[in-house]
Amino acid sequence: MSTASSLCSSTQINGFGGGLGVLRTHVSQPKTLSFTRRRISTVVKATSRVDKFSKSDIIVSPSILSANFAKLGEQVKAVEVAGCDWIHVDVMDGRFVPNITIGPLVVDALRPVTDLPLDVHL
Fold first, then answer.
1. In the chain, what are the domain boundaries?
2. Which residues 6+ apart lie within 8 Å of 65 measured at CB?
């Protein structure tokens, strides 16, 4: 049996008189994945702060979008003291969405306030 056939299974559902047919293919995920290129094996180790937080099953990452921006530093510190893992930052620049919220200047200003990873996305 080939490796590809051991990873796939198919289910076929037939309707009235065989006129309706739906074919579903299920592909299971491989247990391990390795790459070797011309006798050169590459091992990648993540050593960032995000990697150590990614090891747990649940990551608590509250968004600062609902924070009081006049007291943003205090509220980020309160979230850190409460035991949250990351700080979630919703950047809206008026280009992809019509709203404008936090931009790069605010994200830069948050870095000295906390050592938690900043989970930033557009």
1. 3-41, 49-121
2. 89, 90, 101, 102
